[in-house]
Write a structure and sequence with these properties.
The protein is an all-alpha fold. The protein has one domain. The chain has four helices and no strands. It is globular and about 35 Å long.
Length: about 70
């Protein structure tokens, strides 16, 4: 028997925003507050984390090419 949490996670994995402004329809990435507020990370490190997270969110892994 499949757990209900698995079914819900599969159903809501990718949320599509229709009818919003062009910025919202391109998608968005949520960065944990811990990362945003961490004083030990540079702004560049936080931005890199956010960009990699934007790729990983789609498939639960992240392997963008150097060109990407």
């Amino acid at each position: 028997m499949e757990q209900i949490g698995t079914h819900i996670a599969q159903h809501y994995k990718n949320i599509v925003l229709d009818g919003f402004d062009p910025v919202s329809t391109a998608g968005f990435t949520q960065v944990p507050n811990h990362i945003l507020r961490c004083k030990g990370l540079s702004v560049g490190a936080k931005l890199t984390y956010a960009v990699l997270l934007s790729y990983a969110w789609q498939n639960d892994f992240c392997f963008p090419s150097p060109e990407t």
